[in-house]
């Protein structure tokens, strides 16, 4: 039996990595603060500061180990998604029809069960007439 083993990833959080994450958070907060502080300078200054500082925060985040792990996860997800065998249009249409038919049958069954229990409880046991 061929067993695929996944390599174990040991995450070592260094002080440099923590500093990068802290810098990314600081840039993110700085972007928000700059946007509101520069409200008197005009719309272009506000948005320019926001975009530049957000881009800096994203860049610093993706340079950290957490960011690199996120990029690796995304690449692995795309690689696995390419392995998926998608159904043909005819098969997908048939399966959708089966699901709708099952829903209709189940709805009828539940309605019939509800009405039967209602009849047994209210008419036969309690004797309430409507």
From TrEMBL:
It comes from the Bacteria. The keyword Ribosomal protein does not apply. GO terms for molecular function: protein transmembrane transporter activity. Keywords: Cell membrane, Membrane, Protein transport, Translocation, Transmembrane, Transmembrane helix, Transport. The chain crosses the membrane at residues 21-38, 44-71, 92-112. One of its GO terms (biological process) is protein secretion. GO terms for cellular component: plasma membrane. It is found in: Membrane. The keyword Protein transport applies. Essential subunit of the Sec protein translocation channel SecYEG. Clamps together the 2 halves of SecY. May contact the channel plug during translocation. Belongs to the SecE/SEC61-gamma family. Component of the Sec protein translocase complex. Heterotrimer consisting of SecY, SecE and SecG subunits. The heterotrimers can form oligomers, although 1 heterotrimer is thought to be able to translocate proteins. Interacts with the ribosome. Interacts with SecDF, and other proteins may be involved. Interacts with SecA. This is Protein translocase subunit SecE. It comes from Sphaerotilus hippei. The gene is secE.
